[in-house]
Design a protein that fits this description.
It is a single chain. The chain has 171 residues and is mainly beta. The chain has one domain. Helices cover 4% and strands 46% of the residues. The chain has a 4-stranded antiparallel beta sheet with strand order 6-7-8-9, with no helix packed on it. The protein has a 4-stranded antiparallel beta sheet with strand order 10-11-12-13, with no helix packed on it.
């Protein structure tokens, strides 16, 4: 069984004292019969839909990166607009079970972040790669300031624990 990202993406939110959490971000369709060489259309036409899940709210929502988890399920990173990310910038990180149900999620920062990749280390830590403006803080101190308004000029690799908590430099 393989998971495909389907059309629209979405992410909702929950607010808590001391930490805001993101109910993450996606509409997924799982099918049987995926063929990378043929592509999404063949998989949707030839495969059987195993499940569909959509999590989302009213604001603008973006799934930036998705990665399978070796214990089953997947990791997702992205952002959503309206309340938590008013400028449609920021980073939310979540882990989902193989059936698409959320296991945990976090709003990491609401600053100018754009994520391009997420992966796991051999120890189970999560690495997130992307670009930024300003001097966002992932919870371990601010990154060096990048003030240009033209494009994403600062690059980052952020390291998180297996439960999505910041844990210092990725090196």
């Amino acid at each position: 069984m393989d998971c495909l990202l389907s059309g629209g993406t979405g992410m909702g939110q929950e607010s808590g004292v001391g930490e805001r959490c993101a109910m993450a971000l996606l509409a997924l369709v799982c099918t049987v019969g995926w063929n990378d060489a043929v592509g999404k259309e063949a998989a949707l036409a030839g495969g059987q839909t195993a499940w569909v899940r959509k999590y989302g709210g009213m604001g603008a929502e973006h799934l930036d990166a998705l990665s399978p988890h070796p214990q089953g399920g997947f990791l997702a990173v992205g952002r959503f607009g309206s309340t938590v990310f008013p400028r449609e910038e920021g980073l939310a990180l979540g882990r989902y079970a193989a059936d698409g149900s959320p296991l945990w999620s976090r709003v990491v920062t609401t600053e100018a972040i754009h994520t391009v990749s997420v992966t796991l280390t051999s120890l189970g830590n999560i690495l997130v790669v992307g670009g930024y403006r300003g001097s966002p803080d992932f919870g371990v101190g601010p990154l060096p300031s990048v003030t240009s308004s033209e494009g994403w000029e600062g690059l980052f690799i952020a390291k998180f624990s297996p439960r999505g908590r910041p844990c210092g430099p990725a090196a």
